[in-house]
Structures are given as C-alpha cells and as structure tokens.
Amino acid sequence: MIPESEALSDLIGTLYDTTIDRTRWTEVLQRSVEFVGGSASTLYRKNVVGKTGSTILHFNSRSGTPVIDYFADYAKIDPVTTNQFQFGVGEAYSAGDCIPYEELFQTRVYREWARPMGWVDHLGVNLDKSATNFLVLGVFRNEDQGLVDDEMRRRMQLIIPHVRRAALIGNVLDLHATESGAFVDSLNGLAGGVFLVSDNGQMIFANEAGQAMLEERQAVCQDNGALSAVDSRAARALREAIVLAREGDAAVGTRGIAIPLSYPPRDIWLAHVLPLTSGARQQTGKTCSAAAAIFVHRASLETPSALEAMSKLYQLTPAELRVLAAVAEVGGIAAVAEVVGISEATVKTHLQHLFAKTGTGRQADLVKLVAASASPLRARR
Q1: Are residues 248 and 345 in the same domain?
Q2: Residue 170's pLDDT band (boundaries 50, 70, 90)?
Q3: CA–CA separation, 37 vs 171, rounded Å?
Q4: Spatial contact of 226 and 201, defined as CB atoms under 8 Å apart
Q5: Which of 235, 241, 286, 293 counts the most CB atoms within 10 A of its CB?
Q6: Is residue 379 assigned to a domain?
Q7: What are phi and psi of 94, to 5 degrees?
Q8: Rounded distance, CA 196 to CA 185, Å?
Q9: Helices 344-358 & 306-314, crossing angle to 10 degrees?
Q10: How much is the average pLDDT of 185-207?
C-alpha cells in the first residue's frame, strides 16, 4: 500500500495542477475516492430554494448518468438538500448528519435512486456558498464499505483546504493553457489581481488589475521591488507563504489558502498563493522564472438564505426545518410526508411546532413567510 503521506502529496499536487489544466479534475475525483475511502465521487452544484442543480463532474458512477438523473427526477424531493446548505464552507458532513438514517432510508430518493446504485452514504463538503447556491464535493460509500466513519472524515479533512484553494483559484483563473505565453496573456483578462513572484517575493509580472491595485495601494504594494501587503500584519504572512512556495505544495500547506490582506472595518481582501514549483506547473514556473502566483480578490459576504435565516430567527430544529422546506416546495401533509420520509402524524406534529414558533396558523402562512424572508428588500436587524 502507498503510504498515506505519499498518497496525500500526490493528490494535493494533482489538485493544484487543475488550476491551469481543468481536465485533471477527473483524476482528482478518482484519487479522492481512493484516498478518502469510497466508491464514487461527484462535483456538483445545488440551489437550496428551487431544489435544482447540476453535475459538473463525476467519477465511477455505476450506470451511465445517475447523478444527472438525480437532478432531473429526484433533486426536488430530496430532504437532505436543505440541511446540506446549513453546513459551513469547508465543513464535512455525512448524509446522516443531514437527516437521521432511519428517516433517510425511507425516502423515495434513497429507495429509488441511491439504493439501486448500491450507495448507502455520502460524505460531502461545501466548497463554496452564496445566498442560495452551493458547490459540493461528495464521496459515496457502497454497501460493502458501510456508513461514513471517523477515518473517512479524518482523511477528508486533510484534503478539504486544498480542494477549496484549487477550486477558488481555478474559478479566478479559468484557463486551459499551460504554455507560459498563453498563461501570462490570459492573466491580463482577469478582473482580480494576479502577481507572479520569485522565491524571495520579487515581482516578475502583474496583470492589468494587479498593476492598478499597486498604483492605488489597494491591499498590496511594492517594497523594494517585492510584492507586499499594505497592512503590516498581512505583509508578514504573505512573505512567509511566498518563501514556502519555493518548496512546493506540501511546504505551503494550508497557510497560503486564504491570507487576509486587510481587516474590518475596511473591505476584506484575500490572497491565495499557488506554488509554481510542483506538478505540471513547474514548466510554467521555470519559463516565467516564478516560484508562485498570487491571486488577490475582495472577499464576498454571504447572505443567508431564507430558510437559514428563519432557522436562526425562530430557533427551528433540523426536523422542523426539513418539514418547512417541504411545505414551501410541495405543500400538503401527504406530499410532505412522502418527500421527508416520515409519517403524516409526525408531519402534523412538526407543523404545530412551526405554527407556534412563527406565530402562523396555516401552511399558506408558512409559505408566505418563507417568501418574505427570501426578499432582497427585507429589513436588516
């Protein structure tokens, strides 16, 4: 067996290579399955309000396009979605963390989709999240492997920061070219600041957005020809990450994933450090004489979804939140019971609790409350 440290190092290197070669994401999914301990993996996006979404990539799905079938036929009745959204970015969760297994196994989505695939559990992590959408890396377990266990969670936690950084940089870069000329030319078309630096931080290249940031001293500046942060606290962290980059991905570890370059009450700017001394990026780094690429962007504040806001405002339990989501989506006690996978009597009990907590008396009032909470014009508290 390959030692864990070696397997992890290979996986991390492949992850960061996806930033300049998107075709390697399929290899990442395969290696993630092998390292974490699963039978299949998927990169997908969901919308928590409309219960819609799409598959970006999947590896080792047993029959043709099962994940695509999921979004076509089962996504709208999946009770797991709402609680998936409640987990923070970078936090791993199993299907059982979203809904009790005994309830999950009674749902249509499990009986008609997951079980025929041979899947019994799913360990997911939200890589990115907005007001209503979230991006997920999911690894599935089959019947022989059993439910998600502590060892699987531990291994997933080892790769999560690197998956997030690769995804974030990839979203900024959005390149397929690996030749340095095309690489550098493409950087000028990006809205965010991108800087190529040597192993001691000397500036080799700044794209047009980066040049503007330097001129305006917007989060970053030049210090004797080296890239630095305007804020002295951030300058040290950035300098250390750049020095580590010459040793490759393993040396940088998680320290370069999101370096804050400014602090409240000012706008928050973040830097991501990508070593160009490892994997397929080495050739680009050698040609450009660069040890690292630094991506600088403004942090976006996440707006809570309607359901998330209501959960906090009315102190709803996970079970009550699942019923509320189903009421807003399908309505009717029988339909809600079918979607959530519980009895109609249990649905009625949860509804009574929801009415009491929200001060409503009918399902229609609950639906209106969800709609009002989702309005972008709602008052700030």
Answers
A1: no
A2: low
A3: 27
A4: yes
A5: 293
A6: no
A7: -95, 170
A8: 13
A9: 70
A10: 78
Within this chain, do residues 294 and 320 fall inside the same structural domain, yes or no? no
Kindly tell me the sign of the dihedral angle through the C-alpha atoms of 374, 376, 377, 381.
positive
> Considering the domain boundaries, does residue 380 fall inside one?
no
Do 211 and 283 belong together in one domain? yes
Which pair of structure tokens corresponds to residue 265?
């009450």
pLDDT in tens, 276-293: 877 767 666 666 778 888
Residue 146 burial by Cβ neighbours in a 10 Å radius (0-12, 13-18, 19+): exposed
DSSP H helices, the chain, are 4-17, 25-36, 66-69, 80-86, 95-98, 101-104, 108-109, 115-117, 150-173, 180-187, 208-216, 232-245, 249-252, 282-288, 306-314, 318-329, 333-340, 344-358, 363-374
Q: What is the DSSP letter of 178?
A: -
- 107 assigned to some structural domain: yes
Contact 289, 246 (CB under 8 A): no
Helix (H, G, I), strand (E, B) or coil at 248: coil
- We report the CATH number of the domain holding residue 370 as 1.10.10.10
Supply the range of the domain harboring residue 82: 4-173
Does 88 share its domain with 28? Answer: yes
User: Are residues 280 and 319 part of one domain?
Assistant: no
Q: Which residues contact 232 (CB under 8 A, 6 or more apart)?
A: none
pLDDT above 90 as % of the chain? 29
- Among residues 272, 298, 324, the one where a domain terminates is 298
pLDDT tens, 215-262?
Answer: 999 999 999 999 999 988 889 888 888 888 888 776 666 555 567 787
Domain boundary among 251, 279, 298: 298
Whole-number Å distance between alpha carbons of 208 and 187: 8
- Run of H or E residues at 57: strand 52-59
φ/ψ (deg, to 5) at 57: -150, 150
CATH of residue 63's domain is 3.30.450.80
Question: 265 and 366 in one domain?
Answer: no
Question: What confidence tier does 175 reach under pLDDT thresholds 50, 70, 90?
Answer: very low
Instruction: Work out how many domains the chain is built from and give that number.
Output: 3
Integer Cα distance of 243 and 245 in angstroms:
5
Peptide bond between residue 3 and the one before it cis (omega within 30 degrees of 0): no
Domain for residue 103, yes or no? yes
